[in-house]
Design brief:
Elements lengths: L3 H5 L3 H25 L9 H19 L5 H24 L1 H7 L4 E5 L2 E2 L1 H7 L3 H10 L8 E6 L5 E5 H4 L14 H7 L4
Antiparallel strand pairs: 1-2, 1-3, 3-4
């Protein structure tokens, strides 16, 4: 059982381990980011986010756990960055891989009308949408042409003026069904 004293100080060998492992792993992560590119630590999609979180966990293991060596941590970090580099390269080269890996954008508001089915599928509330609308300088849903939940989980907001005269099939990368377009657009 751990005593109160060992809770605060458990010996010099643990501190030495932290003093050596932390800078080594920190420098290694910087080197891996430089080798694999900025995208390795960005939050562009779910898989990029997972890698970012996993790197933090992997770094902590050799720093704090006696049974995980620095070389094991370096290998795990290198493999994770390498796998991320391979995956992002495949995403660029293969439409199939891109479709499987990346979430497609979801139209949550079209021409001032909530798209309830997409909101439910995406688990986004009216208050979250209205917050994004206000953050973009609009006061009312009536001013909004599109609110899109992007593949990186950000909400994009376009005014009605910005999409005036654009049909659903002309929105590049967005899947707007004819039913959505016709039922929500009073001019259709």
């Amino acid at each position: 059982m751990q005593t109160l004293a060992t809770l605060f100080f458990d010996g010099w060998d643990n501190l030495e381990r932290v003093l050596i492992a932390t800078p080594v792993l920190y420098i290694a992560v910087i080197a891996f980011v430089r080798l694999t590119g900025k995208r390795s630590t960005s939050q562009m999609n779910n898989f990029d986010w997972i890698v970012t979180v996993a790197i933090g966990s992997i770094i902590a293991s050799p720093v704090l756990l006696k049974d995980v060596s620095i070389s094991e941590g370096l290998l795990a970090i290198g493999l994770l960055f390498g796998l991320q580099w391979v995956l992002t390269s495949l995403i660029i080269r293969s439409k199939l891989v891109c479709t499987v890996v990346r979430a497609s954008p979801s139209v949550l508001v079209l021409r001032g009308e909530y798209q309830r089915d997409e909101m439910t599928k995406s688990r986004v509330t009216e208050s979250e949408i209205m917050s994004a609308i206000r953050e973009n300088g609009y006061a009312s849903l009536d001013d909004i042409g599109l609110v899109v939940l992007e593949s990186d989980a950000k909400l994009s907001v376009l005014s009605k003026d910005a999409i005036d005269g654009v049909s659903g099939s002309d929105f590049d990368g967005l899947d707007i069904s004819p039913n959505q377009e016709n039922s929500e657009d009073p001019d259709a």
